[in-house]
Amino acid sequence: MILIGSLASLLAGLATGIGAILVFFIPEPSDKFLDASLGFAAGVMLAASSFSLIVPAIEIGGIWKTVIGIITGTVFLFYAERLIPHAHYVAGVKGPPTKLSKIWLFILAITIHNFPEGMAVGVGYGGGDIKAGTSLAIGIGLQNMPEGLAVAFPLLREGSTRSKAFLIALLTGLVEPFGGFLGISVVSLGKFLLPYGLAFAAGAMLLVITEEIIPETHSRGNDREASIGVILGFIIMMVFDNIFS
């Protein structure tokens, strides 16, 4: 199961490259399209956090273990974002002062996002439920596609070639197997850790959604398009979760 969970998180991470490959075939998309795409990714993550992580955590461990897990995951990612310098195209540079180039700061930002996503996939398989883990892997892979697009094109604006922008976007997705391996390994140590692990991944993802992705999508005046993307992504992930449950 550890191998399956790690491979599933790897495939979900590689989906970032599917979105990024569009840099070779289409002109630069509009800000409306990018914001709607990122909104879609946020909607998928929100539904995955709710139906695939939080609800099972409550069913397995009860409400208070779930609360502890969510808070722990949120605090973990909050400090990771404070301690690791990173940048978003609209929000700018965050974290401690650094001399890293803006391209590297973009890479670090998406890496911070992808780690809890990979962990979510791994933890999803940690309970031994292949259907639940597969639902999460499909959902995370689905939302990684617009993220890849949203990473690659800003890199073009920063002066990267199309090949380099694609490669960087693809590589940022490869952090997910590490998160997946860690997640499934930890919860495999004991079933009592499963609700904490599920809720931990959910808390980290909720912070990414509310502090990073949604504010980013609403910062250029494309609120309606971004909101439609969120709702569409939420619905699609909700359907996936019910199909595989």
From TrEMBL:
The keyword Metal-binding does not apply. Keywords: Cell membrane, Membrane, Transmembrane, Transmembrane helix, Zinc. Belongs to the ZIP transporter (TC 2.A.5) family. The chain crosses the membrane at residues 6-26, 38-57, 63-80, 165-187, 193-214, 226-244. It holds the Pfam family Zip. Coiled coil: none annotated. PANTHER family: ZINC TRANSPORTER ZIP11, ZINC/IRON TRANSPORTER. It is found in: Cell membrane. This is Zinc/iron permease. It is a multi-pass membrane protein. It comes from Desulfobacca acetoxidans (strain ATCC 700848 / DSM 11109 / ASRB2). GO terms for cellular component: plasma membrane. GO terms for molecular function: zinc ion transmembrane transporter activity. Its main location: membrane.
